[in-house]
Design goal:
The structure holds two protein chains of two kinds. By secondary structure, chain A is α/β, with parallel strands linked by helices. Chain A has a domain of 186 residues: Rossmann fold. Chain A is built from ten helices and ten strands. In chain A, strands 5-4-1-2-10-9-3-8-7-6 form a ten-stranded mixed β-sheet, sandwiched between helices. In chain A, strand 1 and strand 2 form a beta hairpin. The N terminus of chain A is likely disordered. The mean pLDDT of chain B is 89. Chain B contains 13 helices and no strands. Chain B is mainly α. Chain B is flat, with a radius of gyration of 26 Å. Classes of the chains: A alpha/beta, B mainly alpha. Chains A and B meet through helix 2, helix 3 and helix 6 of A and helix 8 and helix 9 of B.
């Protein structure tokens, strides 16, 4: 992707989001989002349930296309290219912008096949064994599974499964990883491992993570976006909005917005 | 003390609830009726079949090795292999039609169709399942045979295995499609998303991830379809003919187990004769075949349900 002729707001940013809103039929899930996501940093999305943060993260690799009736307005540019341009192929987008889901979702195949599937799909069939080892090592799983590569992935523990899903994602060499509450189904030990892993991975990848866990956001992210739901005047519709987007260290010490302070201090949400 | 006694009498069974008992009786009776009916069917089949094998003209060996099924002839022969092979032959033709078509429609419905197309196609498939088999039978005899088979394959008889097999195949497409569709829908959506998020196309996702994950359910649908093809009666009786000798030419008539049962029971074969008792031997043969297949499909379906619990 060498399309550099488009104006970039910030040389460092990987995504520029402008006036973005996402709706499902009549229901507006999130609106008026403006933000620049910095390259090789961890950006966390926090906020109460239903604030549209999961919806938002799915717009970055066009996974929302798969939900019937989902409509995206506004623009997201990825390294200067409008992701929702008519000519953009969502399959190509997803090859560059990987995603790890809330619940570990390994394929019911062997550990090795879980990784080689993505490699084959992306025509990366040279040195497959090396690529498998590299991805599993990067995902801090190699030592645990190197002797059982042909074991069914469903036999792994939840935390191992999630690291396998991360390995599978990084094996195809994306430059960004989207993580939608990757630790919500895991215990604290497994969560810690994933958080440590994120610190390693961020040297190579840009990471966006949705999390319910405020400590996780404050511990592991560089930037933090706080969303909340606003109820419409008639009280019937709830729409997510971006309240504050800041460096994590700033947001968790001296937030700009009253609402943010209330949320991170646990007074609502 | 007084109070306690009062409570005890209140809690004592004094009220009889006749409606409760009547309803319970009928519900229990209905549940047991099904079992009772099955047992009596098997019992009748067995006793009459035993009568059949007690005729000195019939031997187990002859039953399984003779190559003619001619119970009403002067020198009767009871080669069930003729009927079994015809039955399987037509069932296999039916499977060659219904497995791919049924499976592809299931993959289309669950992976590619929009909600709106799905809303149209599902009911149409169900209509196909509701067409009486006698209609399929005459469709095979009066349309498929003259317009397709005889036009493209010379030397085909009016009654032939090919046309009957094709019609049976069309008949079981909905069975295969609907059970395979259920199996594909039972695969968690998260697997589909995981594959698509890796940059896999819809085609690769459906063939490499969804299909293998639903495989046991799909196999169960195949077995059930096969079992329906074996038990199918009307179509093969109308369009398949009654050729009583061992024969593997799809252009000629064949003689399935079911159509020979129809034939004997509709004809003027007297009660109690060996030819009449042969019906029951055939009945139990067919019963065993479909029973094994149904159990197999049930076993596979249950095994696959465990995977995602």
């Amino acid at each position: 992707m060498e399309t550099k002729e488009t104006v970039q707001v910030n040389n460092e940013s990987v995504f520029n989001v402008t006036d973005l809103s996402v709706s499902y039929g009549d229901f507006v899930a999130i609106k008026n989002v403006n933000m620049d996501i910095t390259k090789n940093k961890i950006t966390a999305f926090i906020g109460p349930s239903g604030c549209g943060k999961s919806t938002l993260i799915r717009t970055f690799n066009r996974m929302n296309d798969l939900i019937l009736g989902a409509k995206v307005n506004g623009t997201i540019t990825y390294q200067g290219v409008d992701l929702y341009d008519k000519m953009v192929d969502p399959v190509q987008v997803r090859r560059r912008i990987g995603m790890v889901f809330q619940k570990p979702n390994p394929f019911p195949k062997t550990i090795k096949e879980n990784i080689t599937f993505g490699l084959k799909v992306n025509n990366m069939t040279d040195n497959m064994d090396e690529r498998v080892e590299k991805a599993l090592t990067q995902a801090a799983l190699w030592d645990e599974v190197k002797d059982d590569l042909n074991k069914n992935a469903l036999e792994l523990s939840g935390g191992q499964q999630q690291r396998l899903c991360i390995a599978r994602t990084i094996a195809v060499e994306p430059d960004t990883i989207l993580m939608d509450e990757p630790c919500s189904a895991l215990d604290p030990v497994a969560t810690k491992k994933i958080e440590d892993l994120m610190q390693d991975l961020v040297k190579e990848f840009s990471i966006l993570i949705v999390t319910h866990n405020m400590q996780q956001a404050s511990r592991s992210s560089d930037y933090c976006a706080f969303f909340t739901t606003k109820t419409s005047d008639d009280g019937k519709r709830r729409t997510g909005e971006l309240v504050e987007f800041n460096e994590t260290s700033v947001m968790f010490t001296t937030p700009d917005q009253e609402l943010t302070e209330q949320y991170i201090s646990g007074r609502f949400g | 003390m007084e109070n306690k006694k009062d409570l005890r009498s209140q809690l004592t069974k004094t009220i009889t609830r006749p409606v409760e008992k009547i309803v319970k009786f009928f519900i229990t009776a209905s549940a047991f009726a099904a079992i009772l009916i099955s047992i009596s069917i098997i019992f009748t089949l067995l006793t009459e079949a035993i009568n059949f094998f007690q005729d000195p003209a019939v031997t187990f060996k002859g039953y399984f090795t003779a190559t003619r099924w001619t119970p009403t002839f002067q020198n009767p022969e009871y080669g069930v292999i003729v009927l079994i092979s015809s039955t399987l032959y037509i069932a296999v033709i039916a499977c060659l039609i219904s497995f791919p078509l049924g499976l592809f429609s299931a993959i289309y419905l669950s992976e590619f169709a929009t909600k709106r197309t799905r809303k149209v196609i599902k009911p149409v498939l169900e209509v196909l399942a509701g067409v009486p088999t006698v209609v399929f039978g005459y469709f095979a005899l009066n349309w498929i045979t003259p317009n397709i088979i005889q036009r493209f394959i010379p030397g085909t008889g009016v009654f032939n295995a090919l046309s009957a097999g094709i019609a049976v195949g069309i008949m079981i497409i909905p069975t295969v499609a609907s059970i395979s569709d259920d199996a594909l829908n039972a695969v968690p959506n998260s697997l589909r998303n995981g594959s698509l998020a890796l940059g896999a196309t819809r085609r690769i996702t459906s063939l490499k991830i969804m299909f293998p994950a639903a495989l046991s359910g799909i196999i169960a649908s195949f077995i059930l379809g096969f079992s329906r093809a074996i038990g199918e009666t009307m179509i093969v009786t109308i369009a398949g003919g009654q050729y009583p000798e061992l024969n593997l030419d799809p252009r000629s008539a064949m003689y399935t187990i079911t159509s020979s049962i129809v034939n004997v029971s509709l004809g003027d074969t007297p009660h109690g004769t060996t030819a009449y008792n042969a019906l029951f031997a055939l009945g139990i043969t067919l019963f065993i075949m479909t029973f094994i297949l149904n159990i197999g499909s049930d076993y596979i379906a249950r095994k696959y349900r465990k995977e995602y619990e």
